[in-house]
Amino acid sequence: MAKAAKGATIGLLQSAARLSRTALAERLLEYGLYAGQDKLMLALSVENGQTPSQLANLLGVRPPTITKTINRLANQGFLEKRLSKEDGRRAYVFLTQDGEQAIRAIEKSVRKTEKIALKGFEKKDRQILTDLLLKIEANLNGTSFEGADDDETVDVDA
Prior knowledge:
Strand content: 5-15%
CATH topology of the largest domain: Arc Repressor Mutant, subunit A
Helix content: 55-70%
Mean pLDDT: 88
Strand order of the largest sheet: 1-2
CATH class of the largest domain: Mainly Alpha
Radius of gyration: 19 Å
Number of strands: 2
Low-confidence stretches: 149-158
Number of helices: 6
């Protein structure tokens, strides 16, 4: 295999991320969803009834961005906002029945995109790639990486 130029790794990582996001966005569009909306919907499928600020923090976006996305998804019938019974100034965001059905479509789209992206990879290679990506994410976040058992991971510092 040819040796990559300095900085090529980050370029390949960016390219793979962009291509995978584009492929997923095309699949999501079949269900009337746009890129980025899937992350918000999946966050609500894990914990339904979050505030916009909780969602913004969780997804790492600014409040105006999350507000726009929530409003679009509400207009599409996937989400609804409900005022808090304790504090009328606070709103919570919930998946509607259509939103819950859309979660299955999102998950199917993610699985199909991942299947295509990882075609030809053995299970061991998938785990190594996952660990490497988690380590990259931790490095860039300034946090520590706690991977799988030492016997199952590759020494990325070698």
